[in-house]
Amino acid sequence: MLKTVNRVVLGLLGLGLFALGSGVLLGGLDLQRRWGFDMPGWWPFRGPDDVVLGTVGRTRWREEGWWWPAVIAVLAVLLALLLWWFFAQLRRHRLGQVLVDSEDGAAARLNGRALEDAIEEEAQALDGVSRAHVRLSGRRTAPVARVRLLPEPHAEPAQTLGQLSREPLAHARDSAGLDRLPSKVRLREARHRAHRVA
Q1: Which of 45, 66, 113, 196 has a CA between 20 and 30 Å from the CA of residue 103?
Q2: Domain check: are 74 and 14 in the same one?
Q3: Full DSSP string of the chain
């Protein structure tokens, strides 16, 4: 849904900016007089001397008691919407369900959170892994696993990645009946205290 909202918002914003920019360009270059066409009566930019917002437009409602509270309320709502949109971009989409081919013509639905938990538990049981966090994203028919591992100080990254690929991720792929389960693995640095030698 976020992709659809992004496309609609960006499309409307682009269309509005294109219309505004075209209108300012037509007025600023005086193209309607040069090319011999008329703009609608409500259009504010009619020539190079016109401004975007004139003195009458700027001061028309200033003396009204409701004007400033209305302006502040509209700006607050706009700010809230923009903040929601910004933080929605940062939040990665989590896959709610994975479609499993049950080989009888109907597709079963596997809870995405349950599959994430199963991969996490199996990954944390691997030798050299202190902690694991798994999140599934992508489409229901083609999930992508994002794995973050905190290795033990003695762990070898290549060996840990090989074990992760051969065991938890392969088991998850096979149990969900997927042809492939692309994975992005991030290893975090294992911090440990320095040992003193007396």
Answers
A1: 113
A2: no
A3: -HHHHHHHHHHHHHHHHHHHHHHHHHHHTTHHHHHT----TT-S--STT--SS-HHHHHSSTTSTTHHHHHHHHHHHHHHHHHHHHHHHHSPPPP-EEEEE-SSSSEEEEEHHHHHHHHHHHHHTSTTEEEEEEEEEE-SSSEEEEEEEEE-TT--HHHHHHHHIIIIIHHHHHHTT-S---EEEEEPPPP-PPPP--
